[in-house]
Amino acid sequence: ETGVTQSPTHLIKTRGQQVTLRCSSQSGHNTVSWYQQALGQGPQFIFQYYREEENGRGNFPPRFSGLQFPNYSSELNVNALELDDSALYLCASSFPHSEAFFGQGTRLTVV
Amino acid sequence: AQTVTQSQPEMSVQEAETVTLSCTYDTSESDYYLFWYKQPPSRQMILVIRQEAYKQQNATENRFSVNFQKAAKSFSLKISDSQLGDAAMYFCAYRPNFGNEKLTFGTGTRLTIIP
């Protein structure tokens, strides 16, 4: 059984560009959640996908979007990058009503 | 909206001693979970312990235990026999047992273990 894996581990982008972050969920998990963790802060909920449908969204603008694929892997897309988007992006997978397992995160730096 | 507050940005403890990390939360719900997560420099969030709100008995996992006071909305973590490997950021988190079950995290406590 493989754990949650995220790619890439580090990324540097220029303000205004677009970025795609990827997450492979733990085997069999049908729910994926994305979190943004700014430096020195706790993670903030971005959105969740359950069986390929968005299942809740936090206080993030529409330029943050996502997808979940039939194999339950997921992507987080951010358009028109801003300096404040620099953060650690965490993906977590789970079954409903069960423990969430986190990946190691993607460190995004916007310059 | 639910909020989670960790009022101790940093804590330190001598190796082999006991330390308690504090957490308070606010919710109008009655059915929820509370968690303590550990985030070492590797960045991966690791679940330390969880507590179901409808269970009065405090959860225990080896050297880790919680003091859950539902009426006071308090959820502290006690680490006994502290070890060097316990050094990390510790986050308290709340999750409702309905809807999208999103996790709401506190701002974290950085725990240092003094050899």
Helix percent of chain A reads under 10%
Mean pLDDT of chain B: 95
Q: Major sheet of chain A, described briefly?
A: 7 strands, mixed
- Which percent range describes the beta-strand content of chain B? over 45%
β-strand percent of chain A reads over 45%
User: Roughly how much helix do the residues of chain B carry, as a percent range?
Assistant: under 10%
The poorly predicted ranges of chain A are none
The SSE order of chain B reads: EEEEEEEEEEEE
Provide the gyration radius of chain A in Å: 13 Å
Q: How many angstroms separate the termini of chain B?
A: 41 Å
Which geometry of chain A do the CA atoms define?
Answer: globular
Question: Low-confidence segments of chain B, ≥5 residues, pLDDT <50?
Answer: none
Individual helix count of chain A: 0
Query: What spatial form of chain B do the alpha-carbon principal axes imply?
Result: globular
What would you call the quaternary organization? heterodimer
Describe this structure in words.
The complex is a heterodimer of chains A (111) and B (115). Chain A is mostly beta strands and 111 residues long. Chain A is built from no helices and eleven strands. In chain B, a hairpin with a 7-residue loop joins strand 10 and strand 11. The radius of gyration of chain B is 14 Å and the shape is globular. Classes of the chains: A mainly beta (111), B mainly beta (115). The interface between A and B is medium-sized, with 25 and 21 residues.
Can you give keywords for this protein?
heterodimer; A: 111 residues; mainly beta; seven-stranded mixed beta sheet; 51% strand; globular; B: 115 residues; six-stranded mixed beta sheet
In terms of topology, how is this protein built?
The complex is a heterodimer of chains A (111) and B (115).
Chain A: E1 5-7, E2 10-13, E3 19-24, E4 31-37, E5 44-50, E6 53-57, E7 64-68, E8 74-78, E9 87-94, E10 101-102, E11 106-110
Parallel strand pairs in A: 2-11
Antiparallel strand pairs in A: 1-3, 3-8, 4-5, 4-9, 5-6, 7-8, 9-10, 9-11
Chain B: E1 3-5, E2 10-14, E3 19-21, E4 24-26, E5 32-39, E6 46-52, E7 60-61, E8 64-69, E9 74-79, E10 88-96, E11 104-105, E12 109-114
Parallel strand pairs in B: 2-12
Antiparallel strand pairs in B: 1-4, 3-9, 5-6, 5-10, 7-8, 8-9, 10-11, 10-12
